[in-house]
Amino acid sequence: MFIVSIIWGVAAPVIKFTLHDFPPLIFLSYRFAISSIIALIVFSVTKERFSKKGKAVEGMIGYSLLAVPVALGLLFFGFDKTTSLTGNVLTAMTPMATVIAGVLLLREHVTGIERTGLTLAFAGTLVIIFGPLWHDGLGTDTSSLGSLEGNLLVIAAIIIDALSALLVKTTLRTGVSASSLTHLSFLIGFLAILPFALVTHGLPQIMSTITSAPITAHLGVWYMAILSGTLAYWLRNQAIKSIEVSEAVVFTYLYPLWAAPLSVYWLGEKITTPFLLGGSIIAVGVIIAEHKKRRNKKKR
């Protein structure tokens, strides 16, 4: 999950940068097309057979639709309207939504140490989110927060992603492999998002946009498709299979720490004192939740 946190932390500025050349629907369709080709190659080599059991099928389809076209669609449209830093910090709220959903729906256990770490990390996230208000004053300068519409879209993506994380847990219990679920989700996601892209932009415009885009934009899409897509989702699904959801998502709090340098030096976004303070609190929270938890397990 630490590797996933780096990949997805870097993904925020990559998304923001690449959206300058590719509108959200074209970006998503292009990205999912690459991941789908990878999936077809893997399936042709492994000769994977999927379970035909009702719960397994429902779980695979449900997860594929929620995690890929819906959650990622909302996320990309949100990042198109807000800053990379703000969007990335908002996604750091995912653990709270996921942990609460895990406790309510899966009856997962959250230890006192985890609660302490999550609370500290959540407090750090709040410092970053509301820092611009304290720094600029209410109603004087809201540009650093990005647009309200964009932020709401990112929050909606967080909620959907939390539900999809729980579906991973229940679906993998039916015997579906993490690799198969990951590849299938991008195939279904591509088939689901493509019609919207065709209706919105039309095939000629889609092809023209892709062929005329600079190489840097294509590299952004390939990063999102291969590293942030196929690899990162497989690693996350594999991790969730072996540990509780609440343990896996704590690393989400690290996203802003990886995104900040790129957002500032690459995209030219401004980093504030509240961001540094909040990032430090987040780091302390993650260290407490993970280090002390592992030390207690060794004592047992």
TrEMBL record:
<feature type="transmembrane region" description="Helical">
    <location>
        <begin position="26"/>
        <end position="45"/>
    </location>
</feature>
<feature type="transmembrane region" description="Helical">
    <location>
        <begin position="85"/>
        <end position="106"/>
    </location>
</feature>
<dbReference type="InterPro" id="IPR037185">
    <property type="entry name" value="EmrE-like"/>
</dbReference>
<protein>
    <recommendedName>
        <fullName>EamA domain-containing protein</fullName>
    </recommendedName>
</protein>
<keyword id="KW-0812">Transmembrane</keyword>
<feature type="transmembrane region" description="Helical">
    <location>
        <begin position="154"/>
        <end position="172"/>
    </location>
</feature>
<feature type="transmembrane region" description="Helical">
    <location>
        <begin position="248"/>
        <end position="267"/>
    </location>
</feature>
<dbReference type="InterPro" id="IPR000620">
    <property type="entry name" value="EamA_dom"/>
</dbReference>
<feature type="domain" description="EamA">
    <location>
        <begin position="150"/>
        <end position="288"/>
    </location>
</feature>
<keyword id="KW-1133">Transmembrane helix</keyword>
<feature type="transmembrane region" description="Helical">
    <location>
        <begin position="118"/>
        <end position="134"/>
    </location>
</feature>
<feature type="transmembrane region" description="Helical">
    <location>
        <begin position="215"/>
        <end position="236"/>
    </location>
</feature>
<feature type="transmembrane region" description="Helical">
    <location>
        <begin position="273"/>
        <end position="290"/>
    </location>
</feature>
<keyword id="KW-0472">Membrane</keyword>
<dbReference type="GO" id="GO:0005886">
    <property type="term" value="C:plasma membrane"/>
</dbReference>
<feature type="transmembrane region" description="Helical">
    <location>
        <begin position="184"/>
        <end position="203"/>
    </location>
</feature>
<keyword id="KW-1003">Cell membrane</keyword>
<dbReference type="InterPro" id="IPR050638">
    <property type="entry name" value="AA-Vitamin_Transporters"/>
</dbReference>
<dbReference type="Pfam" id="PF00892">
    <property type="entry name" value="EamA"/>
</dbReference>
<feature type="domain" description="EamA">
    <location>
        <begin position="1"/>
        <end position="129"/>
    </location>
</feature>
<feature type="transmembrane region" description="Helical">
    <location>
        <begin position="57"/>
        <end position="79"/>
    </location>
</feature>
